[in-house]
Specification:
By secondary structure, this protein is of the alpha+beta class. It contains 3 helices and 4 strands. The protein is 43% helix and 14% strand.
Length: 91
């Protein structure tokens, strides 16, 4: 799966990482729903770090993204507007 972090690029994650990715996304969703700023920062940082642990796609190679994450400097208020009932990662 290909995940884009806006302003940073794309990373390829092995398909078998989807469950782990969804677990980290669920933590983020819970923190946002609870308006927990510290929990949001921790969970969003963990989500971004997890994605960055994948293989970076060279900037010149553009692929359709399976998921698009907002920039790392996104606020809790901005995230609240982005998250649906499925979190940021559908699935």
């Amino acid at each position: 799966m290909i995940v884009r972090i806006m302003g940073e690029g794309q990373w390829q994650l092995a398909d078998d990482k989807l469950d782990q990715l969804n677990a980290v996304d669920t933590d983020l969703e819970k923190a946002v729903a609870a308006a927990d700023e510290a929990g949001f920062r921790t969970a969003f940082g963990a989500l971004l770090d997890f994605v960055r642990s994948g293989e970076k796609v060279p900037d010149g190679d553009l692929h359709d993204s399976d998921a698009i994450l907002p920039p790392s400097d996104s606020s809790l208020a901005e995230m609240r507007e982005l998250i649906s009932g499925d979190g940021l990662i559908a699935g």
